[in-house]
Amino acid sequence: MTTDCPKPMTYLTYPPTHLATSKLSFDIAQISDLHLTGQVGSAPSYQRFLQVLSLAIDDAPDLLLLTGDLVNDGNSSAYDWLFEQLRATRLPFVCIAGNHDVTHEIGTGLPFAERQHIPITPDSRLCDCHSMDIRVGDCLWRVLLLNSTVNGETHGSLPHTSLDWLDDELHHHPHPTLIALHHHPVLMRSAWMDAYILGNKEEFWQVLLKHPHAHTVLCGHVHQVHDIRPFTHHPVQLLTCPSTDRQFTPFCDEFTLDNAPAGFRMIQLSNTAHLSSYIKNVQNRQPIFPI
């Protein structure tokens, strides 16, 4: 007897397309904004990421989702190191690009307006317009991954080809769906951060609002924790998560570092089409300042 139920993929398959669990929920650990820089494997940014990765693994996720700004300077050795660490977990994982993955920023000690931004070619392993089916009992969830970066720029934008792909995926697959991208499509009420928002956010939301099963948007970029419901007439929610590196103080018009600890967000997809999530932080840490 045959069945069309997706089968779990091996941990070596990248990027995964079909995943499944026999548990009551499928758990996704969202890890974001690593900003790996310095000596590969040993510099503080690498060690901070390993702390968060270990913390996430302790909670036994079914998938690791990395939502951009993985490496600060396009160093291919840093991506190789990162993918080695992820493969070593023997868990499915998937990565998308952030602005730092397509832009080499020169003068990081200067005010944002005075820094230089040089376009770089993103690592080929970072996903764009990629879909995943996740079977949780009798319930099918979908996760759609988008590349919101613009080479050489800090702000984001989605090309029309990506928006058309998103619309087509949502139209043909009426299952509860998560959409992951790097840039925030909702104002964070921080003037300096909102200057680097998803530039065509209105077009993005126009697509999602056509589809009632567009369940949750996940993004990185903001180095803050938010849970926002942007609309009263549509149930979609926006979730953000901490950085594994430094945190930005919420609701500040000027660039300001927070002393909040690093962490990740766990997203739990239930077999009854409900989503819950929680934030877990690395405790007992000293504030992280520029190094």
Distance between the termini: 60 Å
Query: Which strand order do you get reading across the main beta sheet?
Result: 1-7-8-9-10-12-11
Radius of gyration: 18 Å
Oligomer: single chain
Beta strand count? 16
Q: Major β-sheet, in short?
A: 7 strands, mixed
Helical coverage, percent range: 10-25%
Note the total helix count. 5
Q: Assign an overall shape.
A: globular
> Which band does the percent of strand residues land in?
25-35%
The run of helices and strands is EEHEHEEEEEHEHHEEEEEEE
Instruction: Give the overall average pLDDT.
Output: 92
Low-confidence stretches: 1-11, 285-291
What does this structure look like?
- This protein has 291 residues and is of the alpha/beta class.
- It has five helices and 16 strands.
- It has helices at residues 44-58, 76-88, 160-172, 191-194, 201-208, and strands at residues 18-21, 25-31, 63-67, 93-96, 103-106, 116-119, 130-136, 139-145, 177-181, 214-219, 227-228, 237-240, 247-248, 257-258, 263-270, 275-281.
- The strands form four sheets. A seven-stranded mixed sheet has the order 1-7-8-9-10-12-11, with helices on one face. Strands 4-3-2-15-16 form a five-stranded mixed sheet, covered by helices on one side.
- Strand 15 (263-270) and strand 16 form a beta hairpin.
- Helix 3 (160-172) runs parallel beside helix 5.
- The radius of gyration is 18 Å and the shape is globular.
- Mean pLDDT is 92; it is low at 1-11 and 285-291.
